[in-house]
From TrEMBL:
<dbReference type="InterPro" id="IPR002818">
    <property type="entry name" value="DJ-1/PfpI"/>
</dbReference>
<comment type="similarity">
    <text>Belongs to the peptidase C56 family.</text>
</comment>
<dbReference type="InterPro" id="IPR006286">
    <property type="entry name" value="C56_PfpI-like"/>
</dbReference>
<feature type="domain" description="DJ-1/PfpI">
    <location>
        <begin position="4"/>
        <end position="179"/>
    </location>
</feature>
<dbReference type="InterPro" id="IPR029062">
    <property type="entry name" value="Class_I_gatase-like"/>
</dbReference>
<protein>
    <submittedName>
        <fullName>DJ-1/PfpI family protein</fullName>
    </submittedName>
</protein>
<dbReference type="Pfam" id="PF01965">
    <property type="entry name" value="DJ-1_PfpI"/>
</dbReference>
Length: 188
């Protein structure tokens, strides 16, 4: 049976931060499922920088179907979880079903990959206390408030937790996550 990886996301997730790991993990031979608040066509966004703006801009991105609703997920079926960023984590952290899912991954010491604003979700389940992480740099104070040591670098590996700042860091993020997966949740 092929090892399964779960991606948890919702509307307004960063397109690249969902689709790059989805495709890269499938390329490695993993079975990848996308879970969201409901089974539906998700609407992702593109965040980019433009001259004259103090922060990133947001434009419509790709659409993609969710394979499962959070209420349908059995975390025991998955070897790891990926948490993309974008705006989705802002509201997803309030979803009790998703918090149960994420807590299960931390309680069973399974690999977790998070990027950009994704650490807002792991903070919501107290998964960052005492850990080293990176995230989108504007979240430095949020990471510290969650009990983490923030490092502004392309990737941070803290045991089973692999974090990255944003989509420009994808190669380092997936390279390090795959090292963890090959040890803890290899393709079978």
């Amino acid at each position: 049976m092929t090892t399964k990886i779960l991606i948890v996301t919702g509307d307004a997730a960063e397109s690249l931060e969902v689709l790059y790991p989805y495709q890269r993990l499938r390329e490695e031979g993993y079975e990848v499922h996308i879970a969201a608040p409901a089974r539906k066509q998700l609407r992702f966004v593109v965040h980019d920088f433009e001259p004259g703006f103090d922060t990133y801009t947001e434009k419509p991105g790709y659409t993609w179907p969710a394979d499962l609703a959070f209420s349908e997920v059995d975390p025991g079926e998955y070897g790891a979880v990926v948490i993309p960023g974008g705006r989705a984590p802002e509201y997803l952290r309030n979803d009790p079903e998703l918090r149960k899912i994420l807590k299960s991954f931390f309680d069973t010491d399974k690999p977790v990959a998070q990027i950009c604003h994704g650490p807002l979700l792991t903070a919501a389940v107290d998964g960052l206390t005492g850990r080293r992480v990176t995230a989108y740099p504007a979240l430095e104070l949020d990471m510290q408030a969650a009990g983490a040591t923030f490092q502004d670098t392309e990737v941070v590996v803290d045991d089973m937790l692999v974090s990255s700042r944003a989509w420009p860091d994808h190669p380092a993020w997936m390279r390090e996550f795959l090292k963890v997966l090959r040890t803890k949740a290899p393709v079978t």
